[in-house]
From TrEMBL:
SMART domains xrefs: SPRY (SM00449)
Highest classification ranks of the organism: Eukaryota, Metazoa, Ecdysozoa, Nematoda, Chromadorea
Gene3D superfamilies, alphabetized: 2.60.120.920
Alphabetical list of PROSITE patterns matching this protein: B302_SPRY
Domain of life of the native organism: Eukaryota
Database matches in InterPro entries: B30.2/SPRY, B30.2/SPRY_sf, ConA-like_dom_sf, Gid1/RanBPM/SPLA_SPRY, SPRY_dom
Ranges of residues in domain B30.2/SPRY: 121-346
Stated name of the protein: B30.2/SPRY domain-containing protein
SUPFAM superfamilies per UniProt: Concanavalin A-like lectins/glucanases
Record carries keyword Coiled coil: yes
Positions in coiled-coil regions: 54-106
Keyword vocabulary terms for this entry: Coiled coil
Length: 352
C-alpha cells in the first residue's frame, strides 16, 4: 500500500473519529437539553403550584381580614349598645332618684302635717281631760259598790252566766256586771258606783237594757251619796237621769234635753223632753245608753242611745261642786241591766 493510500486511510479514520465525537457531543447536548427542559417544566409546575398556594393564602388572609373587620364592627356595635344601655339606666336611675327624693319630701311634709294634727289633737285632749291622767285612770277603774247597793238588787258577773256574786266575789275591779231587781215587790232600788266622777275632767259609762217588764221603771244617770238606796236617781235632789220612758230628769224635775233647763211641765209628767230626736227615745231590751259627764265645760251630762246623741243637761250650780256617782235605779222585779265602765265601749266615738 502506498503512502498516499495510508494517508488517505488515516485522514478518513480521523474524519470518522471527528464525526463520531460530534455525534456524541450532539447526543450529550440533546440529553442535557432534554434534562434542562424537564427541569424547567418541573420548575414551572412548582412555580405554578406556589403561585396557587400564594393565591389561596392571600384569599384566606382576605377572608380573615373581612371576618376581623366584621368582628370589629360587632364590637363597636356592642360598645355603642352598651353605652346606650348605660345611658338609659343612668337616666332611669336619675329619674327614680328624683322621684324618690320628691316622695321622701312629700312624706316628710305629710309627716310634718300629721305631727301638727297630732299636736292639735293632743292639745284638744289635754284641754278636755286635763294634764292629770290619773283622772283618766280613775275613770276606767270604777265599778259598782256592793256596799252602796239596795238589798233587793243582785249584782252578778256577766262573764259567769250572770251567777250572783257572794261577798267574797264582789271585788272592786269588776268593770262589766249585771244588776237585777230580785225583790218580791215593786219599788225603786238603787246602786252606786264605787268612785265618784273625776273633777275637772270627764267620765263615761254605758248601760245595756237586758230585761224589762214595763215601759217605765229603769233610770240611768248620776247621783250624790245623799240619795237613799230606796229612792230613784233623777227624782232625788242632786241626781240626774234618763229613764226608759224617754225623759231627762234632774232633781225630780223634768228637764229639756236641748237646753238642759227645767221644763214647765210638772215633775213626773209624761212629756217627752227629747222630742227633737227622730223616733221614740224610750228604751227597749238590747238598747245601750251612754252617760257622759264633762266637768271642764261647766258641768254637762250627755246621753246617747245606741251611739246616737240624745241631748245634754246642765248640772245645777248647787250640785256642780258635789261628788256625783254613776247610779242606776230599777223599779220592777226581774228588771235587769248590764253596766260597762270601760275601757272598751260599744260606742267609744261618743266618749268625747
Amino acid at each position: 500500500m502506498s503512502f498516499h493510500a495510508n494517508a488517505a486511510t488515516i485522514i478518513e479514520a480521523g474524519q470518522l473519529s471527528t464525526d463520531q465525537q460530534q455525534i456524541d457531543e450532539n447526543a450529550t447536548e440533546q440529553s442535557v437539553s432534554k434534562t434542562s427542559a424537564v427541569s424547567c417544566a418541573n420548575c414551572l409546575k412548582e412555580k405554578a403550584k406556589n403561585e396557587k398556594m400564594h393565591e389561596q393564602l392571600f384569599q384566606r388572609q382576605e377572608q380573615m381580614l373581612a371576618k376581623i373587620d366584621e368582628l370589629q364592627k360587632s364590637v363597636f356595635a356592642l360598645k355603642e349598645g352598651h353605652s346606650l344601655i348605660i345611658s338609659a339606666v343612668e337616666n332611669q336611675f336619675s329619674s327614680l332618684e328624683t322621684k324618690l327624693d320628691n316622695k321622701i319630701n312629700e312624706l316628710l311634709n305629710s309627716n310634718t302635717a300629721l305631727i301638727g294634727v297630732q299636736k292639735d289633737m293632743q292639745k284638744s285632749v289635754n284641754r278636755f281631760i286635763g294634764p292629770d291622767y290619773s283622772e283618766l285612770r280613775k275613770m276606767y277603774s270604777n265599778c259598782w259598790d256592793c256596799a252602796a247597793c239596795h238589798s233587793d238588787l243582785a249584782i252578778s258577773d256577766s262573764a259567769s252566766n250572770n251567777a250572783p256574786l257572794n261577798k267574797a266575789q264582789r271585788k272592786p275591779d269588776r268593770k262589766t256586771v249585771v244588776v237585777k231587781h230580785n225583790g218580791k215587790n215593786s219599788g225603786f232600788c238603787s246602786v252606786f258606783a264605787k268612785m265618784s266622777i273625776p273633777n275637772e275632767s270627764f267620765f263615761y259609762y254605758e248601760v245595756t237594757i237586758v230585761h224589762k217588764h214595763f215601759d217605765f221603771g229603769i233610770h240611768i244617770g248620776f247621783a250624790t251619796k245623799q240619795m237613799p238606796l230606796h229612792s230613784c236617781v233623777g227624782c232625788h235632789e242632786g241626781s240626774y237621769a234618763y229613764d226608759d220612758n224617754g225623759k231627762f230628769l234632774g232633781g225630780g224635775a223634768l228637764l229639756d234635753g236641748t237646753s238642759g233647763q227645767q221644763s214647765t211641765s210638772a215633775p213626773g209628767s209624761t212629756r217627752d223632753c227629747a222630742s227633737a230626736i227622730d223616733g221614740t227615745p224610750s228604751l227597749d231590751v238590747g238598747d245601750i245608753v251612754g252617760c257622759g259627764v264633762n266637768r271642764r265645760v261647766g258641768g254637762r251630762i250627755t246621753y246617747t242611745l245606741n251611739g246616737k246623741r240624745l241631748g245634754s243637761v246642765n248640772i245645777s250650780a248647787n250640785a256642780s261642786s258635789s261628788e256625783l256617782f254613776p247610779c242606776v235605779s230599777l223599779c220592777w222585779p226581774g228588771d235587769k241591766i248590764e253596766a260597762n265602765f270601760g275601757p272598751v265601749f260599744k260606742h267609744p266615738q261618743r266618749l268625747l
